[in-house]
Amino acid sequence: MASVALNVATGLRPWRQAGITHLLLNAPLAGALCAAARPLPAPALTKNAPLSRSVAAVAGKEKNGRSLFSRPAPCDPAQRDPAASIWPDAWQALWTQVSVPGSRPAAVWTYAELGADLRGRADAGRRQVLQTLLGALRLPKGSHAFWPYCLPPDNAPEPEMFLAGLTRFRPWLVLLAGGRAVADLAGLGLPSVNFQLAACGGFRFILLPDLAEVAEMTAPRREQLVAFVRAAIR
Asked: Which residues does 204 contact at the CB level (< 8 Å), separation at least 6?
């Protein structure tokens, strides 16, 4: 892992690690990016926190140098979520479908249409974009998980179930693909500008462009996106 300059704000370190040192922005976007770079409140270091880590793990490494997610600690979902046994049937069935017992993904992805994609109505275009991104990231198997915030047929946002799933996963980072997710989950205080980092409920969120927009990106721009996400996860 590349070294991180200590004088680089936490919210900007993924850009610096991706090799980006200068940005040409308009005034509103520059202001939003500076706001995103402010230090995040540290998650409470309690037994039930989604992710408890020391200051030495800020850059994604434990004190012994190993990746924070190289050896996920097995954990009984019922212990992390006492209400697991009373989840609605549809959400419990989805958890059984997408989760791997004993695993702890580095990143959880979500977007507006994910519920439909996971329930047998997958869009080939979105699948191809995600396969391309995950392949380019070249992270170990099990590093990624997918968890929706709404399910068909009504697709009504259910932020409580979304956060309950994140509590079970305990990811290092939550990736929101597309601004519609932010609008649908407006009450959570999620980031509103692409590549902005924000904390909510003890989790770290980054807003990424919509998958349809990623599909239209030029190869160099997509490579920058991949480098940014890889640095943020690691």
From this structure: 40, 172, 173, 174, 197, 198
Domain ranges of the chain: 10-43+51-233
Whether the bond into 153 is cis, omega within 30 of 0: yes
Annotate 81-129 with DSSP letters as a single string. -TTGGGS-HHHHHHHHHH--TT---SEEEE-TTHHHHHTT---HHHHHH
For residue 221, give the H/E element and its range.
Answer: helix 219-233
Determine if the pTM surpasses 0.70: no
Q: What is the mean pLDDT of residues 179-183?
A: 95
175 has pLDDT over 80: yes
pLDDT in tens, 143-169: 999 999 999 999 999 999 999 999 999
Phi, psi at 146, each rounded to 5°? -125, 130
State the DSSP string of 54-93: -GGGTTSB-TTS-BTTSSPPP--HHHH-TTGGGS-HHHHH
The DSSP bridge pattern shows strands 197-200 and 203-208 to be antiparallel
* Domain 10-43+51-233 is found in CATH 3.90.550: no
Confidence of residue 234 (pLDDT cuts 50, 70, 90): confident
Query: What b/e sequence results for 14-44 when a residue is b if at least 16 CB atoms lie within 10 Å of its CB, and e otherwise?
Result: bbebbeeeeeeeeeeeeebbeebbeeeeebe
Q: Which two tokens stand for residue 199?
A: 């904390």
